[in-house]
Amino acid sequence: MVVLDIDGTLHAASDSHRRAHQSISVAVRAAVRAVARTGTHVVLCTGRLSTATLPFLRELEISAGFAVCSNGAVLIDAATGRIVEQVVFSLAAPIAVLRGWLPDAVFVAEDPGVGVWATGVIDDADTHYGAVTLVEVDELAAASTTRLAVHWPGHSGPELSDALSNNAILNVRCCCYTDEPIADLTAAGVTKAAMLERLRVQLGVAASETLAVGDGVNDIEMLIWAAHGVAMGNSPASVQAIADEICPSAADDGLAIALSRWFR
């Protein structure tokens, strides 16, 4: 079972890496397809909305199996995009708390398989795929979702991380990205690793036969979960510190280089 993050792993992330689809290099496409041809389960595992994950599955010609989306809150059928499993949480308490801490924040909540509800206009991958419904904050607070993205315009990633890391929201897991003022919230206990472990058992893959490659702080649990975790060369120090191996950066087709060690 080979598990691959998307942004910063399959392709070199840029300032717009959370936006529209970016093509995968020829070398990386060939390497991933070579893995799939061996009969190995290739699982894309991303923070992206399911509808924003499908273009990558199509480009890689992955037409069977599963993909993990929304940082582990959603599992989809790779062939159809149909949601197989999802973990939702109520937005009432989190938004009430966040409005106090971040009064000018913009909230984008997933409507799985459909699109998003947003309290403002944000250029983000989630708003490029599926329906975007603009709502008032109070209306959003009455809903439930699989993942809530919190955008803090005019601030930096470290500022948002500091604002959220010193506080806890009951029954919610928060993941911050230091390179941009965005945080992703999911239900407590939801991680890429948790969903992958359930999938591994379902597929009958031995724990020793798992490989994962990623670059972000939301990949840390996934890299620890895998029998062999590979961090991209463009990963933050905290990600590289827990990896079994560090490969070249995505800009240098590091994923293709790493996969070629096991799959010719």
From TrEMBL:
GO MF term set: hydrolase activity
Ion transport keyword on record: no
Superkingdom to which the source organism belongs: Bacteria
A Pfam cross-reference name: Hydrolase_3
Alphabetized InterPro entries for the sequence: HAD-like_sf, HAD-SF_hydro_IIB, HAD_sf
Keyword Hydrolase: yes
Keywords, ordered alphabetically: Hydrolase
NCBIfam families: HAD-SF-IIB
Name of the protein this chain belongs to: HAD-IIB family hydrolase
Species, as recorded: Mycolicibacterium komossense
